[in-house]
Amino acid sequence: MTSTRHAGIILILLMLLSGAATADLRFPTPELDEPLPETTTPEPRQGIWRHIEYVDAAVLAGAIVAASWFAFKRRSRRGIAVVMLLSLFYFGFYRLGCVCSIGAVQNAALSIGGDGYAVSFPIIAFLLLPLFGTLLFGRTFCGGVCPLGAIQDVVALKALKIPRPIEAGLSLFAVAYLAAAVLLAFSGTVFLICRFDPFVSIFRLVPVGKWIEQVAMGEAGRVSFSVAGRVDLLILGGVMLLVGVFVARPYCRYICPYSVLLRPLSRLSKWHVTITPDECVQCRLCENSCPYNAIEAPSAPDPGRHFGKLGLSVCLVLWPVMIAAGLCAGWLAGPAVSRTDHHVRLAEHLRRADAGEETDHDLAAAYDRQPLGADEIHAIAGRVRSRVRHGAMIVGGFVGLVAGMRLVRWSVRRRRPDYVPDRGTCLSCGRCFEVCPIERKRRNDAAASAGEDG
Amino acid sequence: MTDRDDKPKLTRRELLRRGLQAGGVVVLAGGTAGLISEAVAGKGDTVWQLDPDKCVKCGNCATRCVLDPSAVKAVHAYEICGYCELCTGYFDPKATELTTAAENQLCPTGAIVRTFKKDPYYEYSIDEELCIGCGKCVDGCERFGNGSLFLQVRHDRCVNCNKCTIAPACPADAFRRVPADQPYLLKTR
Amino acid sequence: MSPTDDKRLATRRRAARSMVLVCAMFCLMVAGLLVWEWSGAEGADPWESPRFQQLRAELDRTPGDGELRERIREADLRLRREFFRRQAFMRRGGWLLAGGVAALLISAHVAASGRPVKVPGGSGDLSRREIARRKTARWSIGAASIALAAAITALALVSPDPLARRVAPEEPEPVAGVDTEDEPAPEAVEVSADWPRFRGPGGLGVAPDGDFPDDWDGESGRNILWKSEQIPLPGHNSPVVAGHRVFITGADAENRELYCYNADTGELLWRHRAVNIPGARPDAPSVMDDTGYAAPSPATDGRYVVAVFANGDVICTDMEGERAWARNLGPPDNIYGHASSPIIHGDKVIIQYDQGTDPEAMYSELYGLDLETGSVRYLKERPVMNSWSTPLVADTPDGEQLITTSSPWVIAYDPADGGEIWRADCLTGDVGPSPTYADGKVYAVTAYSQLSAIRTGGEGDVTDTHIEWIAYDDLPDIVSPLATDDRIWLVQTYGLMTCLDAETGDMIYEHDFDSTVRSSPTLVGDEVHLLTSDGVMHRFSATADEYDELGTADLSERSNCSPAYVDGRIYIRGRRHLWAVGKE
């Protein structure tokens, strides 16, 4: 961050370049009586905003702690909701939705993919803080911090119950989405999650953040923009929110690639919120309170040792078949995915041109401007293609593995004596606290004792 | 998860859980260490910029940015400008006379300001509020002139998306992350 | 809860419910307006409106139409206002919509608050339900997996994959002129062309003797021998003439053709398409409209015709249009498009193929090709950038010298083997005008830079020794100069002509034609002929000390080409037609 040193380096480079530039200008610059104007270079961030990413990371950590504290210590839905709204405003409408923890997965993949990009500390924090938080407290990040979740949370007014068995299939799409996003980010081309983020354009509908910065810097009105430039994504976001009125948090439950990481961590978490602060009396009042259908009823009495053996063995046989199918699908999809790469596109352009077919004019221009010859481009494209194809097979196999694992899990019997939140899908939003009679009693007692103390 | 009637089963399950938990911690810690070593080797914060030497003026900058108008604008390197009277970045190739009339201009929003300096030299500057980053002037200037007009991401507007939406749409692969304290790739002599 | 509390709550909820309705209507309205505005936009910029494009196209056809210009200016103002108004509307609409949605959500939450929790109904046989649940879940996971696999397979199958196509092994490049063995070689009788190349014999712009008409008129047909049908494809090249045949070329982005016209009747005798040329790239290079895809004029020696096109295609046919050979020199890296014409010298075709903007990169080349087979007799790398000038072979006291001009060097070669004789550093920028030669001096010029008169006879770098004088003012950027022993005429594209003294470089007179000029002047007897772009031929004295106009004639068609003067006839390529002017 030593900007003066960098500026010095730039100056030296410029001097070297100007000394080395021998090519004459087509039309020499005239001698004018006044000095020539300079090209203006407005800085990305000014003043106190220079290192705002670090502030963002700190706010994120604070918000996770606050949401967890409200969930565990205060058991207060209201507190969680306030944290959620604040972080919706901060990360969503003020910071315009970038960087987010979901997208940070891609930065990590790109950094490991190694084309010269190295992930920065704030982005590492965005990626890992929620993961560590989840390993400790369950998905309090999802319920109380994530701005994408929050914007869906506030519209979830008439949540319908989607049967959990159906959800088991639907949530598989998130796995495939994560796999595709990591593959593309790893190959350094598209950030799929960002490209099709349905809510970021809603955050940018009103550029509050830029407005605040401008007012603070005394430059209000200097720069004016913008409805989210991508109306197509705005419409996608609108539709997603409309669906979200009836299906609570559809993105989180069936699409969000980050949830694929959070679910197993939450299952393993050190602590997790419970519906009741004490012993469950099985009053069933909480059963309908969860808009995400994450509350599991107590299991049926043991139906006997041989229950479901057949289903399980079929699933165990199917498991490797599914992995193989995933590998095949990845192999097939490899070339199509590799087409996002610049050199592959150039190579295709060359091949088309050789065959006398119509090609893209801009690609032809791009080919003429770059230094590589046709053979080199074909060689690079060949390497990229084989790399992407192998990567696609790996992620395809991964999706098959997860799908098979879920099949097996739905064939194994587990016992639940009480009403408990499903640790994988529970977002620790705290809605169920409100309806639990034991919880109400606890609160009344606490209020009474506080009154006595007072 | 707790099964008070079945002690041995509880221990087996709990043991497995603890093991997995420890595994999770190890994986996360390993990931953290790996990423931090990446970050230490890296250049810190980055912003997006486009390399004018690669740019092919396809027009995607105007339409693919998340902002409207785009954060990409034409900028002018005056020190390599010829101050031509017949500026091919300003005038339509079919222009019949060298006046500022609409039918002679190349810029669809009239964002280039033409000022007389001294015979026969004119200065061309860009009104960024009007510029939409279509690159028509850049194409004209580079084709027949010195190439002193070029496109740049203007960082007073850019919201610095994690992945620039223009980058994958760029046929010339001209967009890249640059260190935040050297945010421009300018053309110079 | 007391009854009054209940009542208050119910009233609040009712109020919130009506608020929800109002807000929903508002949001729908704003969203509708935003979508309406968005879909109303005609393009990414104000001028992408089809009506505006149409107006501009009309203006291209009738450049002088003042009323049309006014309409364009009005439309421009209206469209730009509309464009920026739309942007402002979308900005404000965003705030309105966000505000409306916020209000809608708040009231909806109030309306929904305090709703009692529904107690779930009976659960039936838990074990049976559990079994059914698991079954559904497994089917659901299976269906999702199959859907994913199907989607990926479909994606893979529909997207074309040109790189997976089996590539035919590269054909060995056929030796140019493979056909020559089967065909009788053209007779090696002494033949000569009448106007063999761009700017006529020797490339000097001097017409051979002939009884050329002074008084002619394209409109009435006075002294117009013929006017061809419309030339099939456009081109800015000039006619060449040999043996009662007139040759021109035409091309667009896809097609390239050589045309042969009957010099007596104007009938199109044959056309030869430049196709099936090994190494030719199908995508057209980007060229400036002023250059086009067929800027180089053909060249002929009375036995063969050679034509070069913007994509690097070179074709050579005999007088009947049968191909002798063809080759491609590789797509030229040339900012305006290749324009230098080929010339024929003895048994060689000479092509100045200058490329790139960095002289040091040595991209530029000088080809000496065998006229009969097209094989390379010599190939010289040139330390120059791209240029648009046509070389000439000057008949100097020291023998024949091939004069080439391109920044920064004027280089003279031996046309027989391509050996360099001398060079002079006196050019900067884009070299459009071709060099000329008179009285032992080579004249090389670039716009905005300098005109140099270079004495031939030197060797090596003659920059400091052989440049006789330099002129700096009013230099041409397209039109080639015309030189006699004591005069030199320079014409700027914008119509200003200056006449300089060949001894000193001092100006004798200047004259403004008040029209653009792209055609080069010709010396006809003791007159100079100059065709302006509006199609008017000006004749003026080549010896007077001031501009002395002897007469004009009007072709009635615009033209940018240099006419050919043969046997009392003037062949002029207009924008769309080929004309023959001669005494009836």
Describe the protein's architecture and organization.
- The complex is a heterotrimer of chains A (454), B (189) and C (584).
- With 454 residues, chain A is mostly helical.
- Chain A contains 20 helices and two strands.
- Chain A has a two-stranded antiparallel ribbon with strand order 1-2.
- Chain A is flat, with a radius of gyration of 27 Å.
- Chain B has helices at residues 7-41, 60-64, 136-144, and strands at residues 46-50, 72-76, 112-118, 121-126, 149-153, 175-179.
- In chain B, a hairpin with a 2-residue loop joins strand 3 and strand 4.
- The longest helix of chain B has 35 residues, at 7-41.
- The N and C termini of chain B lie far apart (71 Å).
- Chain C has 584 residues and is of the alpha+beta class.
- Chain C has helices spanning 3-40, 50-61, 66-112, 126-158, and strands at residues 224-227, 240-242, 245-251, 256-262, 268-273, 299-300, 304-308, 313-318, 323-328, 343-345, 348-353, 364-370, 376-382, 392-396, 399-406, 409-413, 420-425, 436-438, 441-445, 451-455, 460-461, 467-471, 482-483, 487-491, 496-501, 507-512, 522-524, 527-531, 536-541, 549-554, 564-566, 569-573, 578-582.
- Chain C is elongated.
- The chains are: A mainly alpha (454), B alpha+beta (189), C alpha+beta (584).
Characteristics of this structure?
B: alpha+beta, elongated, disordered N terminus, C: 584 residues, alpha+beta, Methylamine Dehydrogenase, Chain H, 4-stranded antiparallel sheet, 28% strand
